[in-house]
Amino acid sequence: MVGIGYDIHRLAEGESLIIAGVNIPSDVGTVAHSDGDVVYHALCDALLGAIGLGDIGEHFPDTDPKWKGVSSDRFVKYAVDAILEKGFSIVNIDCTLIMDKPKIKPYKVQMRDNIASICNVSADRVNIKATTNEGVGFIGRGEGVAAMCICQIDL
Ligand code: MG
């Protein structure tokens, strides 16, 4: 089975920029109820989607104060545990991060390793891609960051 996930957050000054668990030095960060980790949120939705468990908002509503400022690796771990409880395992994960700045190339290996660790798969089963929005639209203007993620799971 496969699952797909997408997430987007606004960027603003005075917020931290945490992507796939990496705290990236930046003038702007994500505005969010949780820590605003777009890759982890997209990944969580992909994992939940693969086993027909709805979406991250159903399991962790952003109206619930319990999830305020929480580290998003908890959401991913929750989805991974649900997959394992059903007797499935994760085959591979592929993520695309869309943002114009800062450049995230120096952090890609750490992002991949963080995901591999939480998902309990080897690093060669995880891929992180990054692309800019070519200066177009709100992502291009540096007002937001988006991520897409797909995963395959199997018996
Ligand atoms: Mg989100």
Question: Mind explaining what this structure looks like?
Answer:
With 155 residues, this protein is of the alpha+beta class. The chain has one domain (2-154): 60s Ribosomal Protein L30, Chain: A. It contains 5 helices and 7 strands. The strands form 2 sheets. The protein has a 5-stranded mixed beta sheet. Helix 4 links the parallel strand 5 (89-98) and strand 6. Helix 1 (38-50) runs parallel beside helix 3. Bound molecules: magnesium ion. The site of magnesium ion has 5 residues, from strand 1 and helix 1.
CATH class: Alpha Beta
**Within the CATH hierarchy, at the fold level, what is the topology?**
60s Ribosomal Protein L30, Chain: A
Biggest sheet features: 5 strands, mixed
CATH architecture: 2-Layer Sandwich
CATH superfamily: 2-C-methyl-D-erythritol 2,4-cyclodiphosphate synthase
Strands of the widest sheet, in order across it, are: 4-1-7-5-6
Structural class: alpha+beta
Distance between the termini: 9 Å
Put simply, the count of helices is 5
Topology pattern, helix = H, strand = E: EEEEHHHEHEHE
Bound molecules: magnesium ion
How many domains make up the 3D coordinates? 1
| Rounded radius of gyration (Å) | 15 Å
- The poorly predicted ranges are none
Count of beta strands: 7
The dominant shape is globular
The fraction of residues assigned to DSSP E strands is: 25-35%
Mean pLDDT figure: 96
State the helicity in percent bands.
25-40%
